[in-house]
């Protein structure tokens, strides 16, 4: 066992805020907006609103003019939304669920959240299976949840425990069927309507998708059945809304249904409505109904016979001025209305819906998957940020200018851009001379997913003016024959690279680059027609490989243009010969298919005949136990004309499978291009599957693991510093119990060091450097763009030399004769600057010293291991929510928590010293994290007394062991990640009073 010493000088910390910020600390920079899942209006105040987004819960107290995050106490990150509900009888009480399956309750208007004690087991992909939480009016303790795996459940003790109300009996809800929503009649708590989520068990009779109960869920009757064409098909019920009197409305698949008797008998309405996603009945006015969906928002005053437009692209409900946004949830009060959208943020109307404007100030929920830098002479670069993973109208691309004051001003940069998501942004370096007006930029992504809603396109775009305006460049790309109208559609374009030698006059370029490559999902291209078929015109179209009529092949996973500078647009040709075809599976269900996906593409800067592509095999892991496609890394030595696998040394799925794990990102050394790096991961495994970085120094002939110090489970971005190729950045995601981050290697990938202080833990999926100042690093995340200004960090511990030099004894805080900045196991964080003490500080058990006196010092006295500490930082205890004792009392935290990571460590003792704070009777050391390392569902407050000893009035000694209680990281990571600190509990006296 090794011994580690941590010394922390800490003053009072403000609740709810970050403990400190400064040099080397990440800060969020916008842009505002994103996908909004739920929108709630407080029944006590029309100006108090709540929303749930991809990056968490936000609250507005000024009718949506500004928003603030409300995540104190919530553990999990999210990919598909936090369900929310308000207790109608207690407006300050709300319930929420996160991606780990935890259920939470807030009694102070979302300022703080407490776990109710109930955790629903997550699905195989690690996400929560709670789709909706519904309050039961008239009861302070009863609520329902609709789940994917467990049906509908009810709680009578404020969410502490739940009982299923579905079963095999005929009068019960069906077992094994996912439920999307449940609604309770505000006028009669026994009157319930529940709706299913999509489920297709196969052949069988038609089954109901909507169910009704008049006895509080004791018995149920199926009331709406969607014809399944011979299958037991359950439709998706996106929302149910009780209206005036006995009116009830529900959106079921592509139709809206109405009941006028409280839910017993239903009929479809609004035959012209398609793909409705929300229904909102006006409880004060008979027959008044709002329906939203892919068409915007419509209103009916006659119960759904006729509808009029309320929110369209023409009156402002649009992310790009062209396409109407997709309505998600709706609320109104008088002439003011709020409309949450999928992908496009929140809109507000103050004139009864005549005009709509964005209302996203403070909503940091944009999902950024691509970054590009357009140099600007004598100014910060123009930052282009691409919206990722959107399947409905979104802003597409934002343009931002870093004002140098810690803020970036953003504006949409999507003039002419018909893209819903952007996954690649590539700047032509020959045109990037400091004038955005003449800088050529390419972007790749995806257009509309559903052809009948908006025109599709090929997903490749070009700008000749630094991203100010765009054109779609799809000449030569094959069209989809079906559905009509035919249009180019290759799924998602994920990479675009340019041949750096392809300009006129190279090496002194007199033109823009002419040769470009891109990757996409590709298509099955019909290349011949069976004898006697009447439609030879279908040759050359994309279609399904499941056909005995047409012959063809998978193409356009990689495609190429040699006239990219053509003013009329380049012409693309297929360039993926040698990349194996996808396998569609066997009839009748084709569930054993495998799909090859090409994601990253890099080009040799010295010899552009050489390119490398990374591929992955996507399949149903519950059916395909031994995949067969040869994936991994492919190399072309003839400008993309043909490709050959180069996978020696890369990991594969378990024998006998020859399939290499998914390669999701590649990077090439710009000086020595025979050196490359690749990230690999099992893309079919659940969230948090282990991933690694591999390196080659012989152009891919051999690959070796290059992951030492890397703890992120899912690397999605690699970036090589062109000025110093030994500096490499890697970014990826993780889970709450095994968080990811951004990592930096100073030695060409031999070792990695986290530089994640201040960065949200769920994911960083794109990286870019300021082209004029490589100390500025930008990351695209699910919470927008984050930026950090790096300074010298001599010991690679994530804390800058500038900060460590401010430590005691002229920067030698452990008095060993060596400055802290030169010791990887010694870290000092200086006092932070914050606002004056809040009113809450006065209630602390010990008077505050000074909120500006805040320091952390870590010193590891260890042997050959446990010598590298990383990301030593203070964390606000309030961000983790109240730490309960008993009798509605909580531990008090007069100092912030300490978080740190120790690499390559089996076990150690850690001393934590707070020289500016005195701990007397009533203090004990607390741990915030998982009971089992890596287990998201077990994250909460725990007593750490058995592993912590108070040595004196300022110092604690902790005992930590890798892979055991006290560490976030599973044993397989080789690291210990700890978060905790002293909590005060002496406010409970013998008689139980405070």
Based on the model shown, name its key terms.
994 residues; mainly beta; 6-stranded mixed sheet; 2 helices; globular
**What integer is the average pLDDT?**
86
- Rough shape? globular
Structural class: mainly beta
Q: What is the distance, rounded to the nearest whole angstrom, between the alpha carbons of the first and last residues?
A: 42 Å
Strand order of the largest sheet: 65-66-1-69-73-72
Q: Helix tally? A: 2
Report Rg: 29 Å
How many beta strands in the DSSP annotation? 74
pLDDT < 50 stretches: 1-21, 832-863, 988-994
User: Helical residue percent?
Assistant: under 10%
Describe the structure.
The chain has 994 residues and is mainly β. The chain has a domain at 2-24 and 799-984. Helices cover 1% and strands 39% of the residues. The protein has a six-stranded mixed beta sheet with strand order 65-66-1-69-73-72, with no helix packed on it.
Produce the secondary structure layout:
Layout (H helix, E strand, L loop, with lengths): L1 E6 L19 E2 L4 E2 L1 E6 L7 E5 L2 E5 L7 E2 L14 E3 L7 E4 L4 E5 L7 E6 L10 E6 L7 E5 L4 E4 L7 E2 L14 E7 L2 E9 L11 E6 L7 E5 L11 E6 L5 E5 L2 E5 L7 E3 L6 E6 L7 E5 L2 E5 L7 E4 L14 E8 L2 E7 L3 E4 L7 E2 L5 E2 L2 E9 L2 E9 L9 E6 L5 E5 L8 E7 L13 E6 L13 E4 L7 E2 L6 E2 L6 E2 L6 E4 L17 E4 L3 E7 L12 E2 L6 E6 L2 E4 L11 E2 L19 E10 L7 E9 L12 E5 L7 E2 L16 E7 L7 E6 L9 E6 L7 E2 L8 E7 L7 E6 L7 E5 L7 E2 L9 E7 L2 E9 L2 E6 L11 H4 L3 H4 L14 E4 L26 E4 L8 E8 L21 E7 L3 E7 L9 E8 L8 E5 L4 E3 L4 E7 L14 E9 L10
Parallel strand pairs: 1-69, 3-32
Antiparallel strand pairs: 1-66, 2-64, 4-5, 5-6, 6-7, 8-9, 9-10, 10-11, 12-13, 13-14, 14-15, 16-17, 17-18, 18-19, 20-21, 21-22, 22-23, 24-25, 25-26, 26-27, 28-29, 29-30, 30-31, 33-34, 34-35, 35-36, 37-38, 38-39, 39-40, 41-42, 43-44, 44-48, 45-46, 45-47, 48-49, 50-51, 51-52, 52-53, 54-55, 55-56, ...
């Amino acid at each position: 066992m090794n011994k580690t010493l941590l010394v922390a000088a800490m003053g009072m910390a403000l609740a709810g805020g970050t403990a400190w910020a400064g040099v080397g600390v990440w800060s969020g920079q916008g842009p505002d907006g994103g996908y909004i899942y739920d929108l709630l209006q407080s029944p006590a105040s029309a100006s108090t609103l709540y929303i749930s987004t991809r990056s968490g819960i936000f609250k507005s107290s000024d009718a949506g003019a500004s928003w603030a995050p409300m995540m104190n106490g919530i553990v999990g990150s999210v990919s598909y939304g936090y369900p929310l509900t308000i207790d109608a009888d207690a407006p300050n009480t709300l319930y929420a669920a996160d991606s780990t399956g935890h259920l939470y309750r807030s009694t102070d208007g979302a300022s703080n959240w407490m776990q109710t004690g109930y955790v629903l087991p997550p699905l195989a992909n690690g996400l929560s299976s709670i789709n909706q939480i519904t309050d039961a009016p008239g009861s302070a303790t009863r609520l329902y949840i609709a789940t994917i795996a467990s049906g509908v459940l009810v709680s009578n003790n404020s969410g502490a425990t739940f009982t299923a109300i579905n079963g095999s009996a005929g009068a019960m809800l069906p077992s094994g069927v996912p439920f999307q929503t449940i609604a309770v009649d505000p006028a009669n708590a026994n009157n319930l309507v529940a709706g299913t989520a999509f489920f297709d068990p196969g052949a069988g009779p038609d089954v109901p998708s909507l169910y009704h109960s008049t006895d509080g869920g004791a018995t149920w009757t199926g009331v709406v059945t969607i014809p399944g064409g011979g299958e037991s098909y359950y439709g998706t019920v996106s929302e149910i809304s009780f209206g005036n009197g006995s009116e009830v409305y529900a959106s079921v698949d592509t139709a809206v249904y109405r009941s006028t008797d409280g839910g017993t008998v239903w009929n479809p309405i609004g035959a012209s409505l398609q793909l409705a996603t929300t229904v909102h009945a006006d409880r004060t006015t008979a027959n008044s109904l709002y329906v939203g969906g892919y068409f915007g928002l419509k209103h009916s005053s006659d119960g759904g016979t006729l509808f009029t437009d309320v929110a369209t692209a023409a009156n402002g409900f649009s992310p790009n001025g062209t396409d109407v946004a997709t309505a998600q949830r709706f609320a109104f009060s008088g002439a003011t209305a709020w409309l949450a959208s999928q992908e496009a943020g929140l809109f507000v109307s103050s004139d009864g819906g005549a005009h709509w404007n964005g209302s996203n100030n403070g909503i940091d929920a944009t999902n950024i998957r691509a970054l590009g830098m357009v140099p600007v002479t004598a100014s910060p670069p123009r930052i282009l940020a691409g919206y990722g993973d959107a399947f409905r109208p979104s802003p597409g691309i934002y343009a931002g200018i870093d004002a140098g004051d810690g803020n970036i001003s953003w504006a949409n940069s999507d003039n002419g851009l018909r893209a819903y998501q952007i996954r690649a942004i590539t700047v032509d370096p020959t045109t990037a001379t400091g004038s955005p007006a003449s800088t050529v930029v390419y972007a790749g992504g995806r257009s509309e997913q559903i052809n009948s809603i908006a025109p599709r396109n090929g997903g490749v775009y070009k700008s000749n003016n630094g991203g100010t305006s765009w054109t779609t460049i799809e000449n030569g790309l094959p069209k989809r024959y079906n559905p009509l109208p035919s249009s180019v559609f290759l799924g998602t374009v994920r990479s675009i690279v340019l041949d750096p030698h392809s300009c006129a006059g190279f090496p002194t370029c007199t033109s823009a680059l002419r040769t470009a490559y891109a990757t996409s999902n590709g298509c099955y291209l019909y290349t011949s027609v069976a004898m006697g078929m009447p439609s030879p015109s279908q040759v050359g179209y994309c279609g399904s490989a499941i056909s005995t009529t047409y012959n063809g092949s998978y193409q356009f996973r990689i495609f190429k243009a040699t006239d990219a500078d053509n003013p009329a647009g380049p012409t693309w040709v297929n360039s993926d010969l040698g990349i194996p075809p996808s396998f569609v599976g066997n009839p009748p269900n084709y569930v054993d298919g495998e799909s090859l996906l090409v994601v990253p593409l890099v080009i040799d800067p010295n010899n552009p005949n050489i390119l490398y592509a990374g591929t992955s095999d996507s399949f149903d892991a519950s059916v395909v136990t031994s995949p067969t496609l040869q994936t991994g890394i492919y190399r072309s030595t003839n400008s993309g004309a043909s490709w050959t696998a180069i996978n020696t040394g890369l990991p594969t799925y378990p024998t006998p499978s020859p399939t290499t794990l998914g390669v999701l990102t590649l990077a090439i050394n710009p000086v020595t291009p025979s050196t490359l790096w690749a990230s690999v991961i099992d893309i079919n495994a659940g969230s948090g599957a282990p991933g690694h970085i591999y390196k080659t120094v012989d152009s891919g002939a051999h690959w070796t693991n290059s992951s030492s110090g890397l703890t992120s489970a899912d690397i999605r971005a690699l970036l090589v510093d062109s000025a110093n190729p030994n500096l490499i950045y890697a970014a990826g995601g993780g889970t709450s119990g095994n968080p990811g981050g951004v990592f930096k290697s100073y030695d060409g990938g031999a070792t990695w060091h986290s530089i994640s202080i201040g960065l949200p833990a769920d994911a960083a999926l794109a990286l870019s450097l300021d082209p004029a100042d490589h100390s500025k690093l930008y990351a695209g995340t699910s919470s927008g763009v984050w930026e950090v200004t790096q300074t010298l960090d001599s010991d690679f511990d994530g804390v800058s030399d500038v900060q460590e030099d401010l430590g005691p004894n002229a920067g030698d805080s452990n008095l060993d004769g060596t400055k802290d900045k030169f010791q990887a196991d010694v870290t000092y964080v200086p006092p932070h600057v914050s606002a004056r003490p809040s009113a809450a500080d006065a209630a602390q058990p010990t008077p505050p010293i000074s909120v500006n006196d805040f320091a952390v010092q870590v010193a590891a006295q260890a042997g050959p291991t446990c010598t590298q500490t990383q990301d030593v930082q203070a964390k606000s205890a309030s961000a983790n929510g109240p730490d309960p004792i008993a009798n509605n009392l909580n531990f008090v935290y007069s100092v912030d928590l300490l978080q740190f990571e120790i690499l390559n460590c089996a076990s150690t003792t850690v001393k934590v010293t707070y020289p500016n704070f005195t701990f007397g009777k009533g203090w004990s050391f607390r741990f915030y994290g998982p009971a089992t390392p890596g287990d998201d569902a077990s994250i909460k407050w725990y007593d750490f007394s058995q592993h912590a000893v108070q040595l004196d009035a300022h110092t604690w000694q902790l005992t930590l062991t890798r892979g055991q209680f006290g560490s976030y990281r599973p044993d397989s990571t080789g690291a210990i990640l700890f978060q905790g600190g002293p909590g005060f509990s002496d406010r409970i006296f013998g008689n139980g009073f405070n």
